[in-house]
Design brief:
The protein is α/β, with parallel strands linked by helices. It has 3 domains: 95 residues, MurE/MurF, N-terminal domain (Udp-n-acetylmuramoylalanyl-d-glutamate--2,6- Diaminopimelate Ligase, Chain: A, domain 1), CATH 3.40.1390.10; 230 residues, 3-Layer(aba) Sandwich (UDP-N-acetylmuramoyl-L-alanine:D-glutamate ligase); 155 residues, Mur ligase, C-terminal domain (Protein-Tyrosine Phosphatase, Chain A), CATH 3.90.190.20. The chain is 35% helix and 23% strand. The chain contains 16 helices and 26 strands.
Length: 501
Amino acid sequence: MPLPGKDNTVQLARLIRSLDVIESRGIMDVDITDISYHSHRVKEGTLFVAIPGTKRDGYHFIEESITRGARAIITEQIPLHPVDIPLVVVKDTRKALAQISAEFFSHPSREIRLVGITGTNGKTTTSYLIESIIKAAGKAVGVIGTINYRLGKKVQPAPTTTPQSYDLQQLLREMITKGAEYVVMEVSSHALDQERVRGCHFDVGVITNITPEHLDYHEDMDRYFAAKKRFFHEILPESEKDPWAIINLDDPLLEDLQKELPPVRVMTYGLDQGEVKAPQREISLGGIRATLSSPSGPLEIRTPLIGEYNLYNIMAATAVGISLGIPTEAIHQGIKDLSLIPGRMERIGDGNPWVLVDYAHTPDALEKAIKEVRRLALGRVFVVFGCGGDRDRTKRAPMGRIGVTWSELAIITSDNPRTEDPLKIIEEIEKGARGVSPHRYLVIPDRRKAIQKAIALAEEQDCVLITGKGHEDYQIIGEQRLPFDDRDEARKALEERDEGS
């Protein structure tokens, strides 16, 4: 992508000057016109970075990249066959890719106010809240997250929550070109483990909470939490901006994290502790009313967002706003203006019965969602859920147990089975459900029929909670991504219910 106002070539010597180079061969004073970590995207003048992939190592595609016109190679090991172009050997090519990408795009994060949000749950909702607050302050803001990447009216699908480092730096540069003054980014544990945000200079880093997730990738909680900690132990301290760390004190793991932090500015939040707290709060299915105590003074909150955990997200966003120097009037207005986050406790219909669609797809998120709805609902609570295939299997039985424990009726169905047999996934969920009660759950593998059944059974004051997919408008079966949206299916089921009554 040509950068505005500059020649789109950078010398290799300049790109690698910040790297820990183990060995270099050839002339480093060559012009690089692009960087690629996919051999099939290499063209004449490209610097190919051979990063290890989940299935195959980029090292095995060095020869192909040279055939396609690569001008230089960065790798972790010297190729078996001699190469006649410049070669740079480093310890970690993922880290190198991030560093040279930031240099190639002239360090875009230095030119904006950059906010990063990590944690298990709440990242997306918190990003929407911060975006709304910044807009209320009259500033242009881009968002990089789970649902999409967006700036103003331009919205593009999000293939991953946090893009690969080259794509991220390119996206930041593009957002700046189109007028962004602020960017809010969800930072996943995968991104931290794979060095995707290395080279980004953050103004603020937020951590919402830590509960088990992605253990198929990280293997255990210690490694998962260690990946999250890297944001605060490595990335934030490297920022040139004297950054803030925003921490949820009500999470015991994060209370300990605060004690380990390197020298960065810290602001904490919690229901009854921290710099931002909510001593007066009222939560119902109609929304949240609260008075926040903060370093900027008291702040009245009125929002249709549902649940105590959304009050936590509001407090996190408020702390970010304060750390960025945004006036309290804009913080108040931004929270007030945000009435909906796609697929995050999204209300469907008129409330007779209540139907909510939520992204909860971990045991902790599912338990919090059902408990909160149970606390607020006047009638019974029905929950529709499943578990994704080709992902952490250890969460399936616990989610079955949670679904049956906290609802009057759990309907276990298919989520995104991917290449697994959906019935086998359901069997593993059932192991947890059966241990609580074999009589308080149904198995309906067809997700459409499961949603229809739950809504047909619900009476006027009952609540149907459909979880797992949230904003997703597809279902992945095998290798196919088929159109399917829980929200559309719920609307259709409500219409059929009304027609039949």
